[in-house]
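Lab channel / #folding
Pinned by the channel admin:
"Please post every new chain as: sequence first, then the structure tokens as a reply. Keep commentary short and put observations after the output so the thread stays searchable."

First post following the new format, from NK:
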Amino acid sequence: MTRKPGASLGGPAAVRKGIRGLHPAYFGLVMATGIISIAARLQGMEVIAEALLWLNVIAFAVLWLLTGLRIIRFPRRFTADLLNHSRGPGFFTTVAACGVLGTQLFLAGKSQQAAVALWFLAVVLYAGLTYGMFTGFVTKRAKPSLREGINGGWLLSVVATQAIAVLGGLIAQQSELYREVTLFFALVMWLFGGMLYIWIISLVFYRYLFFPFSPADLTPPYWINMGAMAISTLAGTVLIGKAPDFDLLQRMLPFLYGMTLLFWATATWWIPMLVTVGVWRHVMRRFPLAYDPLYWGAVFPLGMYTVCTFRLAEVTELPILMMIPHYFVYVAFGAWAAVFIGLMHQLSRCLCIQNT
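Reply from TO:
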């Protein structure tokens, strides 16, 4: 078949284009799939949880393969993304993906060693991104305005911080020798994650209230406003659960309970706000709803809110809260299914182009 001039390239050319333009935040797929799997397991949906677990392992491996190829084949594009104020924070999804997948494996009882390895990988990636990327932002000469440079995706740095705290708190029991050290590190990360949220959300909220917004500006990562608080809540419940194993946590229990409830209340406040803005974007302003890898950043908070509320109900012994995850899990899974169908549709279109 003769290709028309200007037609999309298929085959290897299409693959190269896909790798070159791979969004740094694509590991949000692993984050979203992992937390939905955990939410399903907590609600007794073992078949769904198990299927999503193995799907997530495959997605994690494929995304790292594509990322490695991107670094090797397109190092300049990769570096440009790393130092881009809009796209750069998306790299924190690699850290959060390690934390969520490690938590998924740990809670499923599949591989304690793999969970520990993923935690160490998350810590190394976190250190490199935090001090490498942020230093690059500080020292670069040309910087965007606050209106152009800040968005909800910046809060992925908070999610990454708290993902390390969650998994660190879980794996601490693996080593009697380093248990207290690991729990202390998890506590420090949880506290810093809360402080980092305050820094960033102040700028995001300022952007919300005092700069014009078009429908195109309200990208899905703004749901991370809620997701960052939801995972902070989950990290707090993990630390509360580990208090009997560490005297410092035992002495801090009132503070842990108070801050954890504060985080959950903040996450809860964001949900109606984000839904309202979403209605304005897609219904009132008729912004087209089409697949975008950034939508995984909207699915993750829904799953995380389900899980953190379940755990909060357990540690606070407030059974009335259990009503929320019992129904919210279906909202989260429905959102995951919708975005996954969008991903499959996009991949099928790419295959059709390659075969023409």
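NK: The chain has a mean pLDDT of 92.
TO: also worth noting, The radius of gyration is 20 Å.
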